[in-house]
Structures are given as structure tokens and as C-alpha cells.
Amino acid sequence: MSDKPQGISTLAVHAGTAPDPTTNARITPIYQTASFVFDDVDHAASLFGLQAFGNIYSRLTNPTNAALEGKIAALEGGTAALAVASGHAAEFLTFHALLQPGDEFIAAKQLYGGSINQFNNSYKSFDWHVKWADINNIQSFEDAITPKTKAIFVESVANPAGEVVDIPAIAAIAKKHNIPLIVDNTMATPYLIKPFEHGANIVIHSATKFLGGHGNSLGGLIVDGGNFNWVGDDRYPLLSADRPEYSGLNIGNAFGNIAFAIAVRALGLRDLGPALSPFNAFLILTGMETLALRMERHVHNATLVAEYLEQHPKVAYVKYSGLESSPNRALAEKLSPNGAGAVFTFGLKGGYEAGIELVSKLKLFSHLANIGDTRSLVIHPASTTHKQLTDEQKSAAGAGPEVVRLSIGIEDADDLIADLEQALG
Ligand SMILES: *Cc1c(COP(=O)(O)O)cnc(C)c1O
Fold first, then answer.
1. Cα 371 to ligand 1 centre (Å)
2. Ligand 1 centre from 185 Cα, in Å?
3. Among 15, 356, 409, 419, which lies 20 to 30 A Cα-Cα from 30?
């Protein structure tokens, strides 16, 4: 084979998943085991001391999960990855590796509603403090930086309105202030955007969404970009200090460009415990093989549905970076040339009541709180996912009373449009 890097469709099928070395099974088996037998006493000791890589216990590593980790690391162009129980677990473990009590991080206010809740509420009990910035005002990220800022967090394509985010501009600010940039790439997937190419340092995913793609399992992924120097940086003690529990091992020094992934696994996953079931890893692996095909159809359908809605008399506006009319279009074409994802919002002239009515009349669209399924999905954020937010936060997050969010599936676009036509009346 040549040295030419493989394309994303090939990587989605092949990366991370060689035939099973002991049985020759072509598909990575579900290694449904809690623990693994040591070769001998010395082997056990070296695994526990982080002197050798190998399997101990499925809270830390598992071969099915390792295949998934290899696949996402290859697709994103990262150095290493970790599979965890959910997207929220991926966010939590990432921040746990970076933040100490009293620390701050900056997050875009255009985020998945669950992330907004997590940051505003639960993280406070760890004494971690979010400062909100606005993707439509890049300077707001720099303005929010203080000496306590330890990370910046954005989505590549922002929930719920499907706005492509100017990652290079935010990465430039992060780099100037030597702060790691975390990008939640759930909505775009590496098929559309590879955040490391634009300066991100850590990528996280809810694999529950487009990666798994079939709405059948929760999962989260953390990918290390290997491009942030933690060595000697005492703002990040988990990465830069000698670890007494590992006989003084210094993770930043010892593991170079995979130090972040090692720290999250050996300190975060080990102690906090949100491991991914190998069964879920298997389902997500199977789903990921068709990522490129599915994303192509998702984006195609989303564009047709958004264009249909834009000209409908009962629709006040459609927010989708894939539309010609979108103020975000130029940025979308630059950063996400294969399309702007398949999740977007639109506003109904009839407001809250019209939103509720539409959701109850749709037949082909499933009314539920998820995105990235093969099926088309609909939700009225103000009465559901964003219900816990104040009215001000709802509007700031693009989830005002008139807003309906769609996640467009891979059905025939004509059928989706016909369903919207009958439901809008
Ligand atoms: C769903 C989602 C999450 C949370 O993931 P879970 O797997 O549900 O825990 C985080 N970020 C984004 C963008 C999401 O869509």
C-alpha cells in the first residue's frame, strides 16, 4: 500500500479493527469480561505501575473498547482516545483532568442543553466555574479569560441551531493565552469537520449521536490531539506533577503526546468509573462503519428540508448554516465544505403553541430528546431539553418558545417534507 493517507470512508470501515488475533474473527468480538488474567506476577506489577500497556480490568481498558478508541483516534487525526459511558462522562472526565477546585473555564453559550446544565449546576459542587462566551462575538472568549481559566469549550457545529463555529479564531485566542481548546465534535463528526486541523487540543464526542448513528446505545469518546505541552505546567497538576500513587511517575514527562489520554484513563476513569460497556462499544463500532455514507445522506436531506421550510408561510425563519441565506454560510463553506450537519432549528410564527402542535401532528418524525439517529427526530426545546433554563438562557441558547429542532435522518427527503407539510397544515 502507498503512504498516502486513507480517506475518511476507508478509515471509518477499517481503522482500529484488525481481525481478532486469537480466533481470526473478522469483526471485533464483544469482549464481555470484567477482568483479564496476568501472565505472571511481574506482568501484573508492571501493568499496575503503568510501565506496560495491557488489560487489567474493564473499567480501565477492554479490547472491544480499544478498537473503538483506535477508530475515533484515526478518524479525528488524534494521538490516542478513550471510550467512556456517555458524552457527559467524556466532558466530565476531560474537565476533571484539567480543573482544580476554584478554577474557571470558558464555554460557548450555544451548547447542547445538557452541557449547559452540567456546567451551570453540577460542576459548581466541584468548585469549577463556567464563564459564558458567544460564538457570534469571538472577542467575548478572550474577554472572559482570567488567570484561573484552564480550558475553553465549544461545539464545532453548535446546538441547537446548527451554526458552524469559527474554531480557528477561537483556537488562536486559546493558543495566545496557552489554554487548551476542547471541541465537542458530536454534531459535525470528523466526516464534516476535523477540529485538530483547526487548532483544537482535545476533541470529545457523544457517540450516542451520529457516530453510533442508530439511537441504540449511549457512549462518549475523548480524543487527545497530542498538541498541548503539559510538561512543567503546574496549572495542570494531574499532567505535570509526580503521581505518588504511581511511585512518582510524571504522566506529562513519561507519555509525551498521549499524556492527556493516559491521565484521563489512569486517574479519571480509574477513580470516577464511567466505563463504556463493550456491548455498546460493539454497536457504536458497527454504526461507525457507515459514518461517511450516512452523513452524506443526512446532510443532503437536511438541506432539502431546510429549503422547504424556509419558503413555508407559517415559518418565521430557519437557522441552518447549510442554507444560501444563512449569515453563517461563508464560514460553513470554509470549515465544513461537505455540509453543515443535519440538526437545525426553525421558528414558527405561531410561537409556543404552534411548536407543541407541530410536534404532536408529525408522524414520520419521532418526538424525542436525541439527535443523530437514522430516523428523523423532532423536539420543541423550550418545553423539553431547555426547560430548566431561564427564558434569557433559552433565547441565548437559540431555544426560544417558537423554536423547533429537527435532526434529519436518512429516509427519503420527499417523505420527510410530506410529513412536515401535513403537520404544518
Ligand atoms: C448528546 C450530547 C452530549 C451528551 O452526550 P450523552 O451521550 O447524551 O451523555 C454532549 N454534547 C452534545 C453536542 C450532544 O449532542
1. 9
2. 10
3. 409
Q: Which CATH superfamily is domain 291-424 in?
A: Aspartate Aminotransferase, domain 1 (3.90.1150.10)
Q: Is the pLDDT of residue 79 over 60?
A: yes
Residue 394 pLDDT: 83
Confidence of residue 396 (pLDDT cuts 50, 70, 90): confident
Atom 2, ligand 1: residue with shortest CA distance:
206
Average pLDDT over residues 291-303: 98
Q: Where are any strands of DSSP class E within 289-424? A: 315-319, 343-348, 366-367, 377-379, 403-407
Altogether, the residues listed in the chain come to a count of 425
Mean pLDDT computed over every residue of the chain: 95
- Per-residue pLDDT at 3: 79
DSSP letters, 109-143, are SSS-HHHHHHHHTGGGGGT-EEEEEBTTBTHHHHH
Residue 1: per-residue pLDDT: 55
With a 6 Å cutoff on the Cβ, whether 209 touches ligand 1 is: yes
Mutate to test the pocket of ligand 1, among 163, 205, 209, 379 (most ligand atoms within 8 A of CB): 209
Q: Which fold has domain 8-287?
A: Aspartate Aminotransferase; domain 2 (3.40.640)
Among 92, 95, 112, 210, name the best residue to mutate to test ligand 1's pocket (greatest count of ligand atoms within 8 A of Cβ).
112
Ligand 1 pocket check for 115: Cβ under 6 Å: yes
Whether ligand 1 lies within 6 angstroms of the CB of 218 is answered as yes
Report the predicted TM-score, pTM, of the whole model to 2 decimal places.
Answer: 0.96
Distance separating alpha carbons of residues 228 and 179, to the nearest angstrom: 9
What's the confidence (pLDDT) of residue 100? Answer: 97
Q: How many CA atoms lie within 13 A of 247 on its CB side?
A: 6
34: cell is 470484567
Q: Is the pLDDT of residue 8 over 70?
A: yes
Residue extents of the structural domains in the chain: 8-287, 291-424
